[in-house]
Amino acid sequence: MVVVILIAVLSLDSYLTPKLSDKLKTTVLKASGGLYKVNFRKAELHVLRGNAILYDATLVPDTAVYHLMERRGIAPAEVYELRVKKLIITNAHPFKLYFHKQLDIGLIALDDPELLVSKYEKGQPDTIKKADSTLYQKLSKSLRMIHVGGIKLNGIHLTYTDRTGPKPQILVLKEMNLQAMELLIDSATQLDKSRSLFCKDIVTDLHHFKWETADGLYTFKVRSIRFSAQYSRLTISGAEMTPVGATTFFAHNPHKWDRYTARMEEMVMNNFDFQAFRKKQELNIGRLEFKKGLFEVYSNPAGVPKKTDRIVTYPNWVLRNLSASLNIDTLYVKHIDVIYRAFHKQSNAVGSIVFANTTGRFFNITNSQSIIKEHNKSSAVLTTYVMGKAKLNLACNFNLSDNYNFNYSGHLGPVNLQAGNAAVMPLGLIKFKSGEARSLDFDIHATKKLFTGKVTFLYNNLKVALLNHNQATGYTEQPLKTLLANLVVVKDNNPDKPGEVPRSANITYIRPMQVAFFGSMWQALLSGIKPCVGLGKTPQQTSNTPPTKKELRVQARALKKAAKKAKKEEKQLNKKREEAEKKN
Predict the structure, then answer these.
(1) Which residues of 350-375 are buried (b: 16+ CB within 10 A; e: fewer)?
(2) From residue 533, how far is each of 420, 444, 498, 508, 528 by CA, in Å?
(3) What is the C-alpha to C-alpha distance for residues 21 and 16, in angstroms, rounded to an integer?
(4) Which SS3 state, helix, strand or coil, does residue 99 take?
(5) Coil, strand or helix at 277
(6) DSSP letter assigned to residue 204
C-alpha cells in the first residue's frame, strides 16, 4: 500500500512538472505580448511540499517582437534580461494553478541573479494604437489571480545600459538586494494605485557602490541606498565625492575647473515619485533632507577668468535651463559645513572661508511651468557660523519667472574680527590686530546686471596691519603702510562716538559679466562694508537721513551707466555667438 502511494506521488510529480512548466512559459509569453520568453534547463516539482526548483532559468526578450512594438509605438522604454542559476519556489499550490487558474506562491527566492536592463527611446507608430489593456486583462484568459507572498533577490549583479544617447552609457551595480512583498494581480488590484508594480511594498538595498570618472579625477562612493515603494522614500547613506590631490588635479586642469569635495552622512527623499523618475527622468520630491555633511570648493589657482557671461551660475538660470524636469517642495539642510579655499598668488598661500554648521530650508525648487504660474518664488532661510564663530542669519528670494531677479538679506552677530585672520591674511594680505564686530546688516536686491541696497556695519576698536608674505619668512608687517591705514584711512569705530548715528551705505554695484553668482554677491556686500570703515566712494547716509538730491543724481547716473554697459556686453556676446555659429 505504501509502495503504491509513493509510486502515485512520484508519478504525479513527473506528470505535473511538464504541464506546469508549459503553463508558466505560456503565461509569461501572453502577459508580455510575446516580448519575453522563460526558459530553464531543468524543473523539479514536489507536489506535497508545494516546492519547486528551476535550474539555469532565463527571462529573455525577443528582439524581433520589440522592434515590431517599436514601429507600432507601444514598445516599453526599458527591456529586461534575467539569468539565474537556481530559482526556488516554496509554499506553492499547484492544484490551484492547474484546476482553478490561480497562481498562489508563498515565496520566490533567487540567489546571485544577473539582471541586464536596457533603456531605449520609444519608436514612432506606423499603425493606430489600440486602447491599452491592463496586465490582468491580458492574463485573465490564462489566470484568474496571481499572488506571491514574497520575492527575494539577493546579491543582484545589475548592468544598466542607457541607449538613448549617441553612445551607450553603462552602469554596473553589485551587492544589490531586492525584496517585494504581497504581489497580487486580480480584478480588484488591476487599477490599484496604492501598490507599486502590484506589490504592497518593494524595498531595494544597494551596498558599497563605487564609481570613478573616466579621467580618474573623482571617485564616488555610497555606503548604502535603500528605497521603499510603499513609503515613497529613498535613503542614501555615506555618500562621498572625493577628488585626487590638489597638485595632481590642477596639473590635469590648468585653466578650467575648480576642485570639489562633498560628503553627506545621509540624504532622504520623501514622497519620491520613482515611476516618474524611471519613465521620464522627472525628479519630483516632497521633502528632501541633507544631514551632516561637507561641501568644499577649491578655486583653481591657475584659472583663467571667464570671458562669457556668468549669468549661467545664477540658481534661477540653472533651474530654468535644466533639461530634466525638477520639482522639490522643501529642501532641509542640517549641520552642513561649507568651505571655500583659494590660492592667492601675491601671498603664495591658501586661504579658507568656512561657513560651519549650516542649517536651514529651501522652498519651491522647480522648473515646472505649471507650478511657476501659480507660485513663481523660490526662497531660502539659512543659519550658519562664519569661520565657525559668528552667527549669520541669511534669507534669499528668487523670482523664477522674470529676468533672473533675486534679493538677499542677513544679520551677522557679534564676533572678534581676529577670527577672520585665517582667511584675510592669505587672501588679502591684511591682518586684524584688534576689533569687535557688533553687527553686520544688509538688504540687497539684484538683477542680471545691477545690485542695489543698504549695508550697515557696526564695530569697535578696529586696527589692521598690511602684510607681505614669502615662503622663507612667512608674514611680515609693512609698518609705514599699516600706520597710514590706521591713522588716515580706517576709522576705529562705527558709530564714531556713543550715541551718534552710525554710518551705513547705499550701494550700487554693476556686475561685470564675467563675475559669477557668489562672487557678485560678495562684491556687492563688500562695496557697502568699505564705506562703513572709511574706504571707498560708495554714497553713504545715516539710517535716519533720506538720500540727498546729489546722491539721487549719482545713483541715477550709475543706473544709466549700468544699462549702457549691459547693452554693450550683450552686443559683444551676440557677436561672439554669431562668430562661433559661422565656424561650426
Answers:
(1) ebebbbebbebebbbbbbbeeebeee
(2) 16, 19, 16, 17, 9
(3) 8
(4) helix
(5) helix
(6) E
Instruction: List, for residues 159-182, the tens digit of each pLDDT value.
Output: 988 888 788 888 888 888 989 999
Cα–Cα distance measured from residue 311 to residue 314, given in angstroms and rounded to the nearest whole number? 6
For 404, phi then psi, to 5°, come to 65, 30
In a 3-state reduction of DSSP, which class is residue 119? Answer: strand
Is there a contact between 30 and 138 (Cβ–Cβ < 8 Å)? yes
Residues 9-54: tens digit of each pLDDT: 545 556 556 776 777 788 788 878 889 998 888 888 777 677 888 8
How large is the C-alpha radius of gyration of the chain? 33
The residues, any chain, with a CB within 8 Å of residue 33's CB and separated by 6 or more, are 65, 69, 138
Q: What does the DSSP 8-state code read for residue 281? A: -
CA distance 540 to 534: 10
Question: 6, exposed or middle or buried, with CB in 10 Å at 0-12, 13-18, 19+?
Answer: exposed
- Whether 491 and 462 have beta carbons less than 8 Å apart is answered as yes
Q: Do 547 and 506 form a contact (C-beta atoms < 8 A)?
A: yes
Q: Are strands 169-185 and 102-111 parallel, antiparallel or unpaired?
A: unpaired
Residue 288, all three cell numbers: 528632501
292 Cβ contact partners less than 8 Å away, ≥ 6 residues apart? 264, 265, 266, 334, 335, 336
pTM of the model: 0.74
Cell 569705530, residue located: 493
